[in-house]
C-alpha cells in the first residue's frame, strides 16, 4: 500500500527566512505521481505541483522549489524568502499509475506559520 | 469557469438525520472524488467515480453512499448521520489521464 509521511507537524519561521517542508513516500509501483497542495486559512485546497516518477529534475517556480529524489523516496518543498501569505497547511500526496482514476494518498500535512 | 462547486458550505445535523452533499464540475473531467478531512489526518478518500456510471469505494466508505448523476455531478449521501461523520468534506475532479485533482471549497458538517 502507498503511504506518505510528513514528519513536520508544525513549522514556524520569521518572514524572509527559507523553509523546507519534508515529504517521504512509500510505493511499490515504478510509475507514480507526486503532488503538493496548499491549504490557506480560508480552507480551499490549491494545487501547486505535480511530478511523475520518471522526472527527477528539480523544479523552481518563483520562490518555490521542489527536490525529488527517488533514492531516498523524498519530494521536499522549499520556500525561499518566506512571506506571511505563505502561512498555510501544505500537503504532499501520491498517486499510482494505472487505471482511469488516480487515487491520491495524502500526508497528514505541515502547518507553516510565517511571522512578520 | 467555476471549477468545482459544492453545496452546502456548512451544515448542522442531528444524529440519525440524512443529507446529501452536492458537487459539480465544469472542467469536463471524467473522474470525481469525495474526501473527508479530519484534524491531523490529512484527507482520506471516501468514494470515487472513474467515469460516468461507475463508482468505487475508497479508504473510508462506511456510512456513505454516492451517485454519479452525470459527467458533471457527483453527490455524497449520509443516510443516518453519526457524530463520527463530523468533518470537512471535499469534492475533487480530475482528467483521469493527467491525474491532477482539483478541489472544491469544501463542506463543513457538524453532527450533534
Q: What topology emerges from the helices and strands here?
A:
The complex is a heterodimer of chains A (116) and B (112).
Chain A: E1 3-5, E2 10-14, E3 19-21, E4 24-26, E5 32-39, E6 46-52, E7 59-61, E8 64-69, E9 74-79, E10 88-96, E11 105-106, E12 110-115
Parallel strand pairs in A: 2-12
Antiparallel strand pairs in A: 1-4, 3-9, 5-6, 5-10, 7-8, 8-9, 10-11, 10-12
Chain B: E1 4-7, E2 10-13, E3 19-25, E4 31-37, E5 43-49, E6 56-57, E7 65-68, E8 74-78, E9 87-94, E10 101-103, E11 107-111
Short description:
The complex is a heterodimer of chains A (116) and B (112). Chain A is an all-beta fold.
Q: Tell me the series of helices and strands of chain B, N- to C-terminal.
A: EEEEEEEEEEE
According to DSSP, the number of beta strands of chain B is: 11
Largest sheet of chain A: 6 strands, mixed
Number of helices of chain B: 0
Largest interface: A-B, 22 and 29 residues
Please tally the β strands of chain A and state the result.
Answer: 12
Give the key terms.
heterodimer, A: 116 residues, mainly beta, 6-stranded mixed sheet, 4-stranded antiparallel sheet, 0% helix, 53% strand, B: 112 residues, 7-stranded mixed sheet, globular
Can you give a write-up of this model?
- The complex is a heterodimer of chains A (116) and B (112).
- Chain A is an all-beta fold and 116 residues long.
- Chain A has no helices and twelve strands.
- In chain A, the strands form three sheets. In chain A, strands 2, 5, 6, 10, 11 and 12 form a six-stranded mixed sheet that branches. In chain A, strands 3-9-8-7 form a four-stranded antiparallel sheet, with no helix packed on it. Chain A has a two-stranded antiparallel ribbon with strand order 1-4.
- In chain A, strand 10 and strand 11 form a beta hairpin.
- Chain A is globular.
- Chain B is mostly beta strands and 112 residues long.
- Chain B has no helices and eleven strands.
- In chain B, the strands form two sheets. In chain B, strands 2, 4, 5, 6, 9, 10 and 11 form a seven-stranded mixed sheet that branches.
- Chain B is globular.
- The model of chain B has no long low-confidence stretch (mean pLDDT 93).
- At the A-B interface, strand 5 of A face strand 5, strand 9 and strand 10 of B.
Amino acid at each position: 500500500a502507498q503511504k506518505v509521511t510528513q514528519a513536520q507537524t508544525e513549522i514556524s519561521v520569521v518572514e524572509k527566512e527559507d523553509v523546507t517542508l519534508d515529504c517521504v513516500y512509500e510505493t511499490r509501483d515504478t510509475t507514480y505521481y507526486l503532488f503538493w497542495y496548499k491549504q490557506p486559512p480560508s480552507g480551499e485546497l490549491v494545487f501547486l505541483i505535480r511530478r511523475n516518477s520518471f522526472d527527477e529534475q528539480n523544479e523552481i517556480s518563483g520562490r518555490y522549489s521542489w527536490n525529488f529524489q527517488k533514492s531516498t523516496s523524498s519530494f521536499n518543498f522549499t520556500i525561499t524568502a518566506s512571506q506571511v501569505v505563505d502561512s498555510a497547511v501544505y500537503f504532499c500526496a501520491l498517486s499510482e499509475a494505472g487505471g482511469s482514476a488516480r487515487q491520491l494518498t495524502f500526508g497528514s500535512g505541515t502547518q507553516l506559520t510565517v511571522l512578520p | 469557469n467555476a471549477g468545482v462547486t459544492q453545496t452546502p458550505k456548512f451544515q448542522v445535523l442531528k444524529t440519525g438525520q440524512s443529507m446529501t452533499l452536492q458537487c459539480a464540475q465544469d472542467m469536463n473531467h471524467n473522474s470525481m472524488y469525495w474526501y473527508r478531512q479530519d484534524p491531523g489526518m490529512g484527507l482520506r478518500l471516501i468514494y470515487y467515480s472513474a467515469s460516468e456510471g461507475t463508482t468505487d469505494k475508497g479508504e473510508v466508505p462506511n456510512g456513505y453512499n454516492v451517485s454519479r448523476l452525470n459527467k458533471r455531478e457527483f453527490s455524497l449521501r449520509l443516510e443516518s448521520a453519526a457524530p463520527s461523520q463530523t468533518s470537512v468534506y471535499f469534492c475533487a475532479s480530475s482528467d483521469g489521464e493527467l491525474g491532477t485533482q482539483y478541489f472544491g471549497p469544501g463542506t463543513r458538517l457538524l453532527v450533534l
